[in-house]
Every structure is written in structure tokens, then in C-alpha cells.
Design brief:
The chain has helices spanning 3-27, 35-56, 64-88. It is mostly helical. It has one domain. The longest helix has 25 residues, at 3-27. The two termini are 18 Å apart.
């Protein structure tokens, strides 16, 4: 398997798990994962996992920046991947 595919899978699993962990911590009123960390993980390739986690765990769904920003980031990253695939062939 190509290194980029492995990276994409792992970073998206991390994004998904971050949303689950942060949601659980919010319920328990414990120390939370910062939004900056969640966004950073999303920007470096974990946006799809974070988006899935957002809806799966109903976390950050009231935040406009997440409701609008994450789907746009997924779209931009998807278009970027498609562009790179087309250019490389």
C-alpha cells in the first residue's frame, strides 16, 4: 500500500477518535481537546474522519465553523486529491 494511503487512513482515524474522546470529556466535564488541535488534524488530512465523527457522535454540530467549514475542507481536499491523481497520470 502506498504511504499516502496509509497516512490518509491513519490521520482520519485520529480525527474520528479525537471527536469521540472530546465528546466523552465534554460529558464528564473534564479537560478538552482544543478546537485548534481538531482543526489542525483536519487540515493536515483528517477532515473526513473529523466530519464523520462530528455527525456520528453529535459533537460540535452547533458550531457554525464546524458545520460549514469541515464539509468545505473535505470538498477542497477531495478536489485536491482528484487533481493530483489526474495530473500524475
Amino acid at each position: 500500500m502506498e504511504k499516502w494511503i496509509i497516512y490518509a487512513i491513519l490521520i482520519n482515524i485520529i480525527g474520528l477518535l479525537m471527536m469521540k474522546i472530546d465528546k466523552n470529556r465534554a460529558r464528564q466535564r473534564k479537560w478538552r481537546i482544543s478546537e485548534a488541535t481538531i482543526w489542525s488534524t483536519s487540515v493536515i488530512g483528517g477532515s473526513l474522519g473529523t466530519l464523520i465523527g462530528m455527525f456520528l457522535f453529535r459533537h460540535k454540530t452547533k458550531h457554525l465553523s464546524f458545520r460549514v467549514g469541515l464539509p468545505l475542507l473535505v470538498l477542497a481536499q477531495t478536489l485536491g486529491v482528484i487533481y493530483v491523481i489526474i495530473i500524475s497520470n
